[in-house]
Amino acid sequence: MLTLTGLSKRYDTGDLALSDITLDVPAGQVMALIGPSGAGKSTLIRCVNRLVEPSAGTVLLDGQDITRVRGAKLRQARRQIGMIFQNYALVERLTVMENVLSGRLAYIGFWRSFLRQFPSSDIKQALNLLERVGLETMFDKRGDALSGGQKQRVGIARALMQNPKLLLVDEPTASLDPKTSRQIMRLICELCREQQLAAVINIHDVVLAQQFVDRVVGLRAGKLVFDGPPSALTEKTLTDIYGEEDWSTTTAETDDTDETAMPAVDPLKPIGQGGHP
Residue 158: in which H helix or E strand, if any? Predict the structure, then answer.
């Protein structure tokens, strides 16, 4: 699905942010990017969606080299990439439903979106996604009336409205309390597996990564220094990634019980009668 080959980025200042990164992320796999601040995690994500231009290497998404496309072809490629942001990036004066439907902007155009002229199929999909993320009763609330966890759930639904093939997730739990963080990580991972989406999650919380993702990639000073399953994150490998520290509590197992996990719902299925107010 996503293939990076020899990906490097050197900024105009001369700083080397990424050095010869090569990896594959297949459909349905959730991969966490970990590493110290300045390791290149955010740069890698921004190179994938072309917010930052790579200095060398290629980014293939479903076989298409998106490092070489421009203009309309780049916009079409970005339709396949859903983004979930640390700061939620909602329009807070708009309702939950309007924010979710904004995920269709690349498909229906600015003016139809501005005039709220969405096809009924988009509205049905948005309602189903809101049900899946546990916000079906809040579709008419303004964005500024939501908690941080609710805002992040809206952001997840908005990203999925694009019908993407790849999710790029930038620190989705950094502003959330521990319980909400676990719920959000669980939700992202469940949705990716249900819909066979590849996902790259930039995350500082190693324990959350160990609990929920399929694979962990560790970066240090722009170089790939670890690539493996969460179970392989030993004290030694964490030292290789972050430097010397007492990692004994970080690698310990934790209870993953959560009585509030959301039920699985297909976001593309028709809405049954009585499913929404």
Answer: helix 148-160
Beta strand pairing call for 198-202 and 30-34: parallel
DSSP for 210-243, written as a single string = HHH-SEEEEEETTEEEEEE-GGG--HHHHHHHH-
Range with lowest mean pLDDT among 84-88, 124-128, 178-182:
84-88
> What is the bridge-based pairing of β-strands 223-228 and 215-220?
antiparallel
CB 260 within 8 A of CB 183: yes
pLDDT tens for residues 234-251?
A: 999 999 999 887 777 776
275: pLDDT strictly greater than 60? no
Comparing C-alpha atoms, which of 96, 262, 106 is closest to residue 188? 262
| Interval 20-34 mean pLDDT | 96
Backbone angle region of 69, left / alpha / beta, with phi > 0 → left and psi within -120 to 50 → alpha: beta
If you count them, how many residues does the chain have?
277
109 membership: H or E segment, kind and range: none
**CA torsion sign, 246 to 250 to 254 to 257?**
positive
pLDDT in tens, 191-230: 999 999 999 999 999 999 999 999 999 999 999 999 999 9
C-alpha 268/C-alpha 99 separation (Å) is 18
Tens digit of each residue's pLDDT (9 = 90 or more) over 93-111: 999 999 999 888 877 766 5
236 CB-contact burial (10 Å; exposed 0-12 / middle 13-18 / buried 19+)? exposed
